[in-house]
Amino acid sequence: MKVLPILRKRRTVRRFSDRGVSRDMVRTLIRAGCFAPSAHDLRPWRVVAIDDMKVKERLADLSSAAYLRSLNSRKVGGAEEKAARARLRLIRAPVILVVCLDRSSLRQEDSYRRKRNEWIMATQSVSAMVQNILLQASAMGLAGCWRGVALFLGATLGAVLDLPPSFEPQALVEVGYPSEVPRKRMVQPVDVVLRFNTWAGE
Ligand SMILES: Cc1cc2nc3c(=O)[nH]c(=O)nc-3n(C[C@H](O)[C@H](O)[C@H](O)COP(=O)(O)O)c2cc1C
Fold it and tell me: C-alpha 32: how far from its chain's center?
């Protein structure tokens, strides 16, 4: 079984064709996600898949307004244009997966250090799930983009999607059939990343 070609094939895609993604396909993606490893096997991930244009529009309107406020407060140039682009991008994604961490599924700990580490392990578990989703999407001829912007949109996502208070949005994953060919990717040589036994050593 060769995994490397599958990993190599997965690329981030930001433009999608109009071809729809069925709910069965979305279920297959999430099923793949659920095979991810998770700390204490707690599987803290929960996902809302947005495929309804009205919901996409509501989310896009509110999130681009929040983005515009943030850009203006930091006096970033071209704010209107940037916010309009961000809005269109969400609307054009055939399906948006909102991947959340459910805090209520975590172990209850007393100390700050243990609580924090449990939370970090939960975010790592959710990340492993997102990677599985992206790999499954690629294997099905779909593509996606993992978007960290979910971290800035907790309140907006909570309100638009009626999320329980224990849900922390961790990632938006835009999914669809690709309509762009990604640039050639630069992969780090293994020797830049890896040393054996000590960092100072071989
Ligand atoms: C945590 C995380 C957050 C990301 N956020 C964004 C984002 O907000 N917008 C975006 O266009 N791409 C985002 N990406 C995608 C990266 O830009 C992309 O993975 C990287 O450029 C490498 O390209 P590749 O996925 O094709 O190998 C994110 C990726 C990760 C892992």
Answer: 14
- Give distance in angstroms: CA of 145 to centre of ligand 1: 6
Atom of ligand 1 nearest to the CA of 130: 31
Is the distance from the beta carbon of residue 165 to the nearest atom of ligand 1 less than 6 Å? Answer: no
141-173: pLDDT as tens digits = 999 999 999 999 999 999 999 999 999 999 999
Instruction: Give yes or no for a contact between 97 and 183, defined as CB atoms under 8 angstroms apart.
Output: no
The residue whose CA has the least distance to atom 13 of ligand 1 is 147
Structural domain contains residue 59: no
Question: Strand 167-176's sheet: what is its strand order?
Answer: 45-50, 95-102, 167-176, 143-147
In a domain, 72, yes or no: no
- In the prediction, which pLDDT does 107 show? 87
- Whether 189 is covered by a domain: the verdict is no
Residue 152 is part of which domain span?
A: 11-51+93-176
Reported as a pLDDT band with limits 50, 70 and 90, residue 110 is confident
Q: What is the pTM of this model?
A: 0.96
Cβ of 9 below 6 Å from ligand 1: no
Write the CATH number for 36.
Answer: 3.40.109.10
Please choose, from the candidates 102, 58, 65, the residue with its C-alpha nearest in 3D space to the C-alpha of residue 80. Answer: 65
- 147 CA distance to ligand 1 centroid (A)? 6
Domain count, the chain: 1
Does residue 120 lie within any of the structural domains? yes
